[in-house]
Amino acid sequence: MGGLDLADIQPSPDAPQSVPALLRRNASQFGSSPAYREKEFGIWQSWTWAETADEIEALALGMLVLGLNRGDHVAVIGRNRPALYWSMVAVEMAGGVPVPLYQDAVSEEMAYVLDHCGARFVVAGDQEQVDKVIDAQENGPGIEHTIYLDPRGLRKYDHARLSSFADVQAKGRAATELKAELATREGELTYDSTCVMLYTSGTTGKPKGVVLSNRNIIEASKSSSEFDHLRRDDEVLAYLPMAWVGDFIFSIGQAYWTGFCVNCPESADTMMTDLREIGPTYFFAPPRVFENLLTSVMIRMEDAGRFKKKLFDRAMARAKEIGPKILDGKPVTGAEKLAYAFDRAMVIGPLKNTLGMSRVRVGYTAGEAIGPEIFDFYRALGINLKQLYGQTEASVFITQQPDSEVRPDTVGVPSPGVELKIGDNGEVFYRSPGTFVEYFKNPESTADTKDPEGWVATGDAGFIEEDTGHLRILDRAKDVGKTAAGGLFAPKYVENKLKFYPDILEAVVFGNEREFCTAFINIDLTAVGNWAERNNIAYASYQELAGHPDVLASLQGHVEAVNRSIAEDPMLAHCQIARFLVLHKELDADDGELTRTRKVRRRIIEEKFGDLIEALYDGSTEKYTETEVTYEDGRKGKISATLEIRDAATVGVETAQMAAE
Amino acid sequence: MLDQSTGGYTTADGRKIGDVVMEMRGITLRFGGVEAIKDISFDVREGEIRAIIGPNGAGKSSMLNVISGFYHPQEGEVLYKGSKRPPMKPYQVARQGIARTFQNIALFEGMSVLDNVMTGRLNHMKTGFFAQGLWWGKAEAEETKNRAKAEEIIDFLEIQAIRKTPVGRLPYGLKKRVELARALAAEPQILLLDEPMAGMNVEEKEDMSRFILDVNDEFGTTIVLIEHDMGVVMDLSDRVVVMDYGKKIGDGTPDEVRNNQEVIDAYLGVSHD
């Protein structure tokens, strides 16, 4: 990697250097193609690029009438609607900084952010958001003016500091004398002016305002659009929160760069229907959405008639073989082609249509690990589902999977223009044209995260596969440790592999500074209970089921399968699980073992079940233990059990010798 | 006491309430020997939310049925917009701009939400059966117009997601909302709601209250409602009529009614010794 400073890349002088400039380009070059669609009153209403430019300009002028100054922050709050996207571009056009906020934020959170960025104006979607802004104003610096979209319920409000979107636009259209001023401000925008400020959701501490410049947004959009060959006739459905960087890149950055159409659903509840009607060609969803879709399909297939079920099962089994091969352009035999064509006509085509994915050319998922079977299901249907890895500070893209190199266990190769390096502790660092400018009013955090050479720490540990160049993310860097032999210890990586089995609800892996790795396993009562019912296994309690020999045997099978899969990976082979036990109680947030968002709290578990960990390492085959539990009504009690500790077969690695004696 | 003599008043939240739009004068309704309503008089002003409350069997629903033209009282008269209303059939009353919802949901279960809402537009359709069947000529334009109005109401009541769902598959709370939608589709001047919140949980009640207020606010519709839930009534309505055993025992703002000794007795019970 050379010493080239990426932040100095300049676009060719005639290329658009800001989002409003891209808007002007689109309006003049293909003004009559659709830019936005929104379903309202049961009908898809659409706006061309020329109409969009007109709407945005009217709003920008209206904001000048209200007194927007250069550098003013304007908060935008609401569900995905064209008018709110226009607001963000209009604010930038008028020299301000748009700050989209999460619409489900409570008013205290909103108050903090509004106060932190010193917003003078707010564009709010409806009465609910206006109410929150009014609440937030009570002990903050006043918002000077709030512009609302949906007038419903707002008629009686004091309109001294409140205007409807349509009114502001009307005032803007009337204010022809301000056109020159708007043109001046628009002309002042450069590649380095702020395009947008996004607050990170802030799982730890207060949210931080990430300042992204036109350079960040346009460079990231440009290279990612080229990476996936996005075209002007692509369609996206904008349904993810507007305050999330991904939505800004997909629905503004890439949309303005390539000129494709952004479709907004009628309401949050109609998203699935709207998805089917639009049939997007480019689609992003977090793993949770793909999981829910798959579950709903599977449940409906269980209820289907025997013939249909059989047809479906047969087709899916074949598609899992052939579908990914076709997607990746690998050779397929004539017989396979014929079989897939038949299945596509009978099963796969209709199923894709039901899912609203008939036309998906590029689909992405990101955010957390996605189960391989979920991933394989969509790939089998011929949906080009890929993973990417990114964060707000990078304007989304750090790595992406190229077509034909898609695997569930990696997050792909560095996106165009992105440099990667792995720190001494395994932490992933990146540097790219999309790297954020700074955290707003927070130079210490900026310095902590981004070094003077522009390298940004992701906080995630991972490694780059030598033969393929793909990045693999293991865990949060602070959770990664070393085994006694000095190898990398990545508990979450192993836990995720275990949790992909439906009958394992939770797993906690130990091994930091130990000779070998061990695990606690929690069974999933629904899945295992269902299995017990089908196999005529009687049980009276969770504890009894968890200790049943047949359950243990099947879990041992899973652990050994996971071990085999880990062993394929020389860097992590020593993380195989040598011994495990199945816990006698479900890990619970009420007992402090999990966070409220169901993340494992390692320290607390290590303390609380110290005796069991001891037993995992001292070679005993069973252990009596007592644990304090909190009942739902707050009373405390104790449960006791004798737990069986099992050895699991590991695959040929010297650090994974069987227990101490 | 509110000043009844002048033409209207202004509510605490700044809504202007207009003239008397409907007046009941000495209404008495008998079923054989049973007097369901005994000599009741009250008025409804334009743009207000008027509640009729009372314990079970007080005669509230009978009163609403008198207003909607379903029952014809033996004595007394109904004045609508200043003139005496002759005995009418319910459909004639509906044409005068009065729409209602029912205590027991009365929707077409097999039809979609949209079709149910469209039935509320019946009084706004003038083309004939055959023209509509063939979707020809004026019928086409008329249906487009009516559909647009129906969609406006679907949007207003936030039931877009169930637009095409058969009503029979909906949960109770949503059915109530669909019924409100159908009544609104008629673009009524007076909307009669018979226990709109009956059988709902707290959240559904809150939603429904919000919608009732919004309807009043947005369309300026005068609303007459019957409700059991005192909390809801007191928060929602501008003026309240209290009935007990067919008699009117109170009439006024929620605060006045709340402090009325007779009303307290009727609701909490009192020993007669």
CATH architecture of the largest domain in chain B: 3-Layer(aba) Sandwich
**CATH superfamily assignment of the largest domain in chain A?**
ANL, N-terminal domain
Biggest interface and residues each: A-B, 13 and 20 residues
Question: Which regions of chain A have little confidence, pLDDT < 50, spanning 5+ residues?
Answer: 1-7, 654-661
CATH class of the largest domain in chain B: Alpha Beta
CATH topology heading of the largest domain in chain A: Rossmann fold
- Per DSSP, the total helix count of chain A is 21
Mean pLDDT of chain B: 87
Helix fraction of chain A by DSSP (H/I, runs of at least 4): 25-40%
| End-to-end separation of chain B | 32 Å
Question: By helix and strand content of chain B, what is the structural category?
Answer: alpha/beta
Fraction of residues in β-strands of chain A = 15-25%
Mean pLDDT of chain A: 88
Describe this structure in words.
The complex is a heterodimer of chains A (661) and B (273). Chain A has 661 residues and is α/β, with parallel strands linked by helices. Chain A folds into four domains: 14-282, ANL, N-terminal domain (Rossmann fold, 3-Layer(aba) Sandwich); 285-383, no CATH class; 395-479, Luciferase, domain 3 (Roll), CATH 2.30.38.10; 487-656, 2-Layer Sandwich (GMP Synthetase, Chain A, domain 3), CATH 3.30.300.30. In chain A, 39% of the residues lie in helices and 22% in strands. Chain A contains 21 helices and 28 strands. In chain A, a hairpin with a 6-residue loop joins β20 and β21 (471-476). In chain A, α12 crosses α14. The model of chain A is unreliable at 1-7 and 654-661 (pLDDT under 50). Chain B is α/β, with parallel strands linked by helices and 273 residues long. Chain B has two domains: 1-97 and 188-273, 3-Layer(aba) Sandwich (Rossmann fold), CATH 3.40.50; 111-186, no CATH class. In chain B, 36% of the residues lie in helices and 25% in strands. In chain B, β6 (75-80) and β7 (83-84) form a beta hairpin. The longest helix of chain B has 19 residues, at 138-156. Chain B starts with 8 loop residues before the first strand and ends in a 5-residue tail after the last helix. The A-B interface holds A 40-43, 152-153, 155-156, 266-267, 269-270, 273 and B 13-15, 114, 147-148, 151-152, 154-156, 158, 160-161, 163, 210, 213-214, 217-218.
